[in-house]
C-alpha cells in the first residue's frame, strides 16, 4: 500500500517474478546419452529439480541447439528472455549467448570451472557463479603424487577455445613450484580441446613426450583424455596401478 498525502492510498502493482527455472541443455537427447557429460548434466538437473520441488517452482528444459555445436548457438533465441526469468547454465560452453542473456537482465546461475573470459566478464559480474575449484583440485592431486615419491609428472596444457589459461594447468604449475620442481614443457604439451575427437593426437603427444623425457605419473583433468592416454601408456609398456 502506498499512501500519498492529500491524495489517498494506492495499491502498488504486484512485482513480476518467475515461478520457473529454465535449465539450458546443449542439444536434444543429452539426458538419454550414456557419456560422462550427460551424467554430469543429469546430476545438476536432479539437484535443481529437488530444490525447485521444495520451493514450488517449475523447471523447464531449453534445448539450445539442434546439433550440440557451439557455433550453432543463436543469441537471438535468448534475447526474448525477460528480467524476471531464472536461467541455469551448466558451463562456459554457452558463452556465445552470454551477452544476449546479460542484455535481457534475467537471473542467471552459471557453473564456472574457473575459466576467466575478459571479453565477456561484464556479463558474469551480476550473475551467481557456482565455481568448481579446478585449480585447487589439481594442486591437491599433484601434491599427492609428489608425496608418494613422484617427481616427473605429465599432464596436458589444454587450450579451451576461450583464449584463456587452462585452470588445471595453473594448479599443476602452482603445485610443482611450491615443491621446488620445474614445470617442464616436455611434460606439459599444449593440446586443443578438439583433440578429444581425435584420440590419435593425444596418443602421439603422449608417446613423443615420454620418448623425449620419461615421466613417472600422469594427471588428467577430464575423462575425455583417459582412454587415449591408457592406449599410449599400454604401447609404452607402462603399468597403471
Low-confidence stretches are none
Which strand order spans the largest sheet, edge to edge or round the barrel? 4-3-5-6-7
**Number of E strands:** 11
The largest pleated sheet is described as: 5 strands, parallel
How much β-strand is present in the residues? 15-25%
The chain-level mean pLDDT equals 88
Spatial gap, N to C terminus = 70 Å
Number of helices: 7
Q: Would you list the SSEs in sequence order as H and E?
A: EEEHEEHEHEHEEHEHEH
- Radius of gyration (CA) equals 23 Å
What helical percentage do the residues reach? 25-40%
Q: What coarse outline follows from CA principal-axis ratios?
A: elongated
Q: Could you say which structural class the secondary elements and strand pairing correspond to? A: alpha/beta
Question: Keywords for this structure?
Answer:
241 residues; alpha/beta; 5-stranded parallel β-sheet; two-stranded antiparallel ribbon
Give a written overview of the molecule.
Helix content is 34%, strand content 17%. The strands form four sheets. It has a five-stranded parallel β-sheet with strand order 4-3-5-6-7, covered by helices on one side. Helix 4 (134-147) runs parallel beside helix 5 (167-178) and helix 6 packs across helix 7 (226-235). It has seven helices and eleven strands. It has 241 residues and is an alpha/beta fold.
Amino acid at each position: 500500500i502506498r499512501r500519498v498525502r492529500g491524495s489517498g492510498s494506492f495499491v502498488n502493482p504486484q512485482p513480476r517474478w518467475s515461478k520457473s527455472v529454465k535449465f539450458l541443455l546443449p542439444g536434444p537427447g543429452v539426458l538419454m546419452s550414456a557419456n560422462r557429460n550427460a551424467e554430469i548434466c543429469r546430476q545438476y538437473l536432479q539437484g535443481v529439480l529437488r530444490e525447485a520441488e521444495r520451493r514450488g517452482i517449475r523447471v523447464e528444459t531449453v534445448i539450445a541447439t539442434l546439433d550440440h555445436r557451439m557455433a550453432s548457438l543463436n543469441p537471438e533465441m535468448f534475447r526474448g528472455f525477460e528480467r524476471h526469468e531464472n536461467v541455469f547454465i551448466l558451463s562456459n560452453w554457452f558463452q556465445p549467448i552470454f551477452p544476449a542473456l546479460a542484455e535481457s537482465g534475467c537471473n542467471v546461475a552459471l557453473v564456472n570451472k574457473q575459466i576467466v573470459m575478459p571479453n565477456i566478464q561484464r556479463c558474469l559480474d551480476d550473475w551467481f557463479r557456482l565455481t568448481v575449484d579446478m585449480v585447487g583440485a589439481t594442486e591437491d592431486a599433484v601434491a599427492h603424487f609428489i608425496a608418494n615419491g613422484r617427481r616427473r609428472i605429465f599432464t596436458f596444457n589444454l587450450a579451451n577455445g576461450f583464449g584463456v589459461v587452462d585452470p588445471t594447468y595453473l594448479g599443476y604449475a602452482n603445485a610443482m613450484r611450491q615443491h621446488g620442481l620445474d614445470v617442464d614443457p616436455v611434460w606439459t604439451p599444449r593440446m586443443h580441446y578438439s583433440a578429444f575427437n581425435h584420440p590419435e593426437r593425444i596418443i602421439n603427444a603422449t608417446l613423443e613426450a615420454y620418448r623425449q623425457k620419461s615421466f613417472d605419473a600422469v594427471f588428467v583433468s577430464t575423462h575425455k583424455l583417459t582412454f587415449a592416454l591408457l592406449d599410449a601408456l599400454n604401447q609404452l609398456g607402462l603399468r597403471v596401478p
